[in-house]
Design brief:
- The complex is a heterotrimer of chains A (about 350), B (about 220) and C (about 230).
- By secondary structure, chain B is of the alpha+beta class.
- Helix content of chain B is about 40%, strand content about 20%.
- In chain B, strands 1-2-3-4-5 form a five-stranded antiparallel beta sheet, with helices on both faces.
- In chain B, strand 1 and strand 2 form a beta hairpin.
- A two-stranded antiparallel sheet of chain C has the order 1-2.
- The longest helix of chain C is centred in the middle third of the chain and has 31 residues.
- Chain C is globular.
- Classes of the chains: A mainly alpha (about 350), B alpha+beta (about 220), C mainly alpha (about 230).
- Chains A and C meet through helix 5 of A and helix 9 and helix 10 of C.
């Protein structure tokens, strides 16, 4: 592609290449990832490795079939990142094939079929997560109590191999536990008032020592990673702030009206996939709008859908569905709210001309 | 492909109206004929299906009557009209079967249950439900033998407060990830049994009725 | 007029296939193809309606005027569909329970009205019958292929419950290809239908390109020597 000598203006360019961007995102995810692996032990590490490897292999094979040079496209790290993001949203003790099927769906169906990196309409990791959740509801909702590495209760490597690759059914059944979202939803459905439902501990949710997906439990570490990305300007604040702000607003409003049936804002912000989604998924430059106003709208839409789905839908967590829904709206948002073209005003009139017309008036 | 010479009468409104009317008549005739031919078989199929589900909860050995022959309709508080099918052996009611409905995760779970004259569950089957496939559909007997665990139980065995899933302190297994589904079925069956205990005399009353009928005849 | 029956057959089955080329009838297609047997059932019902409407419309094409043709076509198709619906309810009860919702929808299957408008009403009886049959077969082909793909991936079986549709003698068709399969629900649900259809369409285009290039199944003999 670089063989063309044609160079078009403007000569502004982004300091970060795709590969560098991916690198920073991976680095920002590292604390939450390492913590998740520590918290859920060897099975989590095995699942993580299998999922990431499957994503990279699927990318390689897709590129081969499509006749693109695999080496160059693989080096951009986007498949690696998709694999990592998908792994982080899986139940940590899920069997290996959940990770593999998810990675294949993410890379082949959600990404390469649309034309590869930069062409996908939906966030690959979230598309895969939704597909997995619909297809394997049992595996995707079997969460375990944290069994930190090197603690007495943690499974040995051998047991872990059985959990991830064999039939670790008995070992898993012993420590299964509902996530706070699941638990609250079930109890609310039985007419139990919110303040009587045991198990809601904002502090534990914040640092993350609770049952949940592999890399979603620690809201603080994810926030930390998000701040790193903001500082490096890999992402902008518009989407995360709009997303988290909308959830806070809706949750607070309804909590004030009917505290016994609507959970408070901290509960929503600290539980489930909200932090991961706000900083790492919704901000995906490919599947989110271009303009600032578009991004604010997109973030607010994600937040609203997350809260609505969690509160009124059949599923306890709606983050992945919310992202896909708003991904589908992205082309529409970009159609109506266009970014200003460099050198032109919002209506597309060149700047000096628009100044001239204004003066004429 | 142009149509050959168009006769002028075909342009008249009368012809067009007649044409439409003619086809409508033809269609109506065909449909009436089709309905007449298929009416009997369809009714027979529906009868057979109902009978099939009844036979799953009432063993054939304990009755010699046609289960669909003389159902009674009872008023069930909070539910409405419930049709009770009765199995009889030599005129005596040996078992009853009726529908019970549980409040499932994604909608009502319709079950049919058979209870013998002593109040023991003969069988429970789910007729229709909208629970999550892969999680809540274990209430179907084809997928999981769980629903058979009701067989032989009654309103005193286990005691009424044990008619709940283990998570709620009762005696029944729930499914991982689908507690609400299992709870709904347990509640529905418990409700059905409680009703039987309360209205036993009405449900089994036919004995006297049958006797008097015999006398009259 | 000289209508090539071979051409009609090829159009119906492949080149101008209801689904592959015309992209019609996707609603019943995606809704019922959870199993190959369901696809087969709807396909057979559609063929019956297609052929019967081809017969009636081509026979009556001389007396139907252009002004009232659409209501007449719809009337004929709707009558036939209702009859099929009644007969299936009476004699294929279990299959009807599965397909029931979609049988009446054959009326709205644009493919049938489309053929009525563009072929049956303009051609003699025999070519129309041939066209109806081939279009129906083409639709059946897609229904069965899509149903088979989704059934194998979704539940690991093939032609399950075929005996319900075709009678006990066809029980041998019922296969469990992947024993102890956990099931892949996505494929059985409508989104899986879209995904599978997308891949099948892609495969059709690859085959078409290969045919055009002459690398497989060279239709025109002069190309055979090319490679």
């Amino acid at each position: 592609m670089n063989s063309s000598p044609l160079i078009a203006s403007p000569h502004a360019h982004d300091a970060n290449t795709v590969a560098e961007t991916m690198g920073w995102v991976l680095l920002a995810l590292a604390p939450a990832t390492l913590f998740g692996i520590y918290l859920f032990g060897w099975p989590a590490l095995l699942l993580f490795l299998v999922t990431v490897a499957a994503a990279v292999v699927a990318e390689y094979l897709s590129l081969k079939i499509a006749g693109k040079p695999p080496g160059r496209f693989l080096a951009d790290g986007s498949a690696l990142l998709t694999g990592v993001l998908l792994a982080l949203t899986l139940p940590p003790w899920a069997p290996w094939w959940v990770g593999v099927v998810g990675a294949v769906i993410a890379i082949v169906i959600a990404k390469q079929v649309f034309g590869g990196v930069g062409q996908n309409l939906f966030n690959p990791a979230m598309a895969a997560r939704v597909a997995l959740l619909i297809s394997f509801p049992l595996e995707m909702t079997t969460f375990v109590e944290p069994q930190p590495l090197f603690s007495a209760a943690a499974p040995t490597l051998q047991q872990s191999l059985a959990i991830t690759f064999g039939s670790g059914g008995a070992a898993i059944d012993a420590v299964t536990s509902a996530t706070i979202l699941d638990h609250t939803r079930t109890e609310l459905g039985q007419g139990v008032a919110l303040d009587e439902i045991a198990g809601y501990d904002p502090l534990a949710l914040a640092w993350g020592g609770v049952p949940g997906s592999l890399g979603e439990t620690s809201a603080l570490l994810l926030l930390l990673g998000g701040l790193l990305l903001l500082w490096r300007r890999v992402i902008t604040w518009y989407i995360p702030v709009a997303l988290l702000g909308t959830i806070t607003l809706l949750a607070t409003l309804f909590h004030l009206i009917a505290p016994e049936s609507y959970a408070s804002a901290p509960y929503h912000l600290l539980s489930g996939a909200v932090m991961l989604v706000a900083f790492f998924i919704a901000t995906d430059p490919v599947t989110s709008p271009l303009s600032v106003r578009g991004q604010l709208l997109f973030g607010a839409g994600c937040g609203a859908f997350i809260w609505i789905l969690r509160t009124w839908s059949g599923y306890p967590e709606g983050a992945a569905f919310a992202i896909l829904l708003m991904n589908a709206f992205t082309p529409l948002i970009d159609h109506y709210i266009r970014p200003r073209i460099y050198g032109r005003d919002r209506r597309g009139v060149p700047l000096n001309e628009s100044v001239a017309t204004r003066e004429e008036r | 492909m142009k149509a050959v010479a168009e006769p002028s009468y075909r342009q008249r409104v009368g012809y067009q109206a007649g044409l439409l009317g003619g086809f409508a008549t033809l269609a109506a005739t065909l449909l009436v004929a089709g309905n007449m031919i298929t009416k009997e078989p369809i009714a027979e199929q529906q009868r057979r299906e109902l009978l099939n589900s009844l036979e799953k909860v009432i063993p054939t050995e304990i009755h010699d009557n046609d289960l669909l022959a003389d159902p009674i309709t009872v008023q069930w508080q909070g539910v409405g009209e419930v049709i009770v099918y009765r199995a009889k052996y030599e005129g005596l009611v040996t078992a009853v079967a009726y529908r019970v409905t549980g409040k499932g995760y994604a909608g009502p779970i319709h079950c049919i249950m058979g209870i013998d004259a002593s109040g023991r569950v003969l069988g429970v089957r789910v007729l229709a439900h909208t629970e999550t496939p892969g999680l809540g559909d274990k209430i179907e007997v084809q997928r999981d033998p769980w629903i058979l665990s009701f067989n032989g139980l009654s309103w005193g065995n286990p005691p009424p407060d044990q008619w709940a899933v283990k998570k709620d302190g009762g005696g029944f297994d729930q499914f991982t990830g689908a507690t609400i589904t299992a709870r709904a079925v347990v509640d529905a069956v418990a409700e059905g049994l409680a009703y039987f205990e309360a209205e036993k005399s009405v449900l089994l009353a036919s004995y006297a009725a049958v006797q008097s009928q015999l006398v009259v005849e | 007029m000289a209508t090539s029956y071979r051409r009609i057959a090829r159009d119906g089955l492949w080149d101008n296939n209801v689904v592959f080329a015309q992209m019609l009838a996707l609603c019943p297609l995606l809704a019922v193809t959870g199993t190959a047997t369901n696809g087969l059932g709807l396909g057979l019902a559609s063929i019956a309606v297609m052929v019967a409407s081809a017969l009636m419309i081509s026979m009556l094409r001389g007396i139907i005027t252009p002004q009232v043709r659409i209501p007449v076509f719809i009337l004929i198709i709707a009558t036939l569909v209702t009859l099929v619906d009644l007969f299936m309810n009476a004699w294929l009860y279990d299959l009807h329970k599965v397909l029931g919702l979609f049988i009446p929808l054959i009326v709205t299957n644009c493919a049938i009205l489309g053929r009525a408008e563009s072929f049956f009403s303009r051609n003699p009886v025999l070519p129309s019958l041939m066209d109806g049959l081939m279009m129906g077969l083409g639709f059946l082909l897609v229904l069965v292929v899509l149903g088979a793909v989704r059934e194998i991936l979704g539940s690991g079986t093939l032609f399950s419950d075929a005996a319900l549709l075709l009678g006990e003698s066809f029980r041998f068709l019922e296969m469990t290809l992947i024993p102890e399969y956990r099931g892949f629900l996505l494929m059985i649900l409508p989104p899986g239908g879209f995904i599978a259809l997308g891949f099948i369409l892609a495969a059709k285009r690859v085959i078409d390109r290969r045919i055009a290039e002459g690398t497989i199944w060279a239709d025109s003999p002069q190309k055979e020597g090319a490679r």
